[in-house]
Amino acid sequence: xxxxxxxxxxxxxxxxxxxxxxxxxxxxxxxxxxxxxxxxxxxxxxxxxxxxxxxxxxxxxxxxxxxxxxxxxxxxxxxxxxxxxxxxxxxxxxxxxxxxxxxxxxxxxxxxxxxxxxxxxxxxxxxxxxxxxxxxxxxxxxxxxxxxxxxxxxxxxxxxxxxxxxxxxxxxxx
Length: 174
Ligand code: SF4
Ligand code: SF4
What we know:
By secondary structure, this protein is mostly helical. About 50% of the residues lie in helices and about 5% in strands. Helix 4 packs across helix 5 (about 80-85). The longest helix has 21 residues, at about 5-25.
C-alpha cells in the first residue's frame, strides 16, 4: 500500500466524498444497501490490509471491559496493570483508548495480539454498518485514515451518480 499516494488522494477527494455523505442525510437511493455491498466486494479485491495497517498506525481502537480482560489475560497481566501501562479513559465518553499511536501491539506492520485483538479492531472499517446512510460521520472520519473506506465511498458515490440525478436534484442547503 502506497500510503503517501493514499494521503494525496484524501486531500484531493475528501471534500467531494464528505459532501456526498452529507447529501445522504436528505436523499437515499432505494437500493442503497445493494450498492454498498457490491462496492464493498469490489474494494476488497483491490485492498490488502496486510500491506497497509494504517488504522493501527494512525487511529486508536476503543477497548471494551471484555477486550481488556481478554487481552490482559493473554499477556499474563491484570486488567488494571494493562490499563495503567497502555490506556487512557476518554473523559467525554468514558471509553478506554490507546495512549499512543502507532498501537503498541503493532509489530512489523502486523498485530501481535491478532487472535485476542479488540472487537473494534476486528470490526474495522465497519463497512457493514446498517443502514449505511446514518453512519456518514463515521465514514467521513475514517476515510482520512483508511484506504478501503476512501475507496468504498468513492465507488458508492460514482455508482449513485451514474444511476440517479444526484445531487443536483437537491435544493441548495440554506
Ligand atoms: S490491537 Fe492490533 S489490530 Fe488493533 S490497533 Fe493494535 S495492532 Fe492494530
Ligand atoms: S482497515 Fe483500512 S486502514 Fe486498516 S489496514 Fe485495512 S485498509 Fe488499511
